[in-house]
Amino acid sequence: RQQFLATISLKKRDPISEDLKSRIALVFRAEVAETGFNHVSVVHLMKKSGIRRQTFYDNFQDKYDLLGYTI
Does the predicted TM-score (pTM) go above 0.85? Predict the structure, then answer.
């Protein structure tokens, strides 16, 4: 049972594919270019890249972490 629960826990926190991370980064760059970094929000990134909030936070701590990923 313990191994089963560990497997479920791992599956919930699996990082998203690099392709999806790249898509989020692309949307992020476009938003920064259009509105400026201070006006970019995770909510807008979620809507434009088609991801859930939890998916974003499973892979990035915040928009500053995403900025670090894109550089």
Answer: no
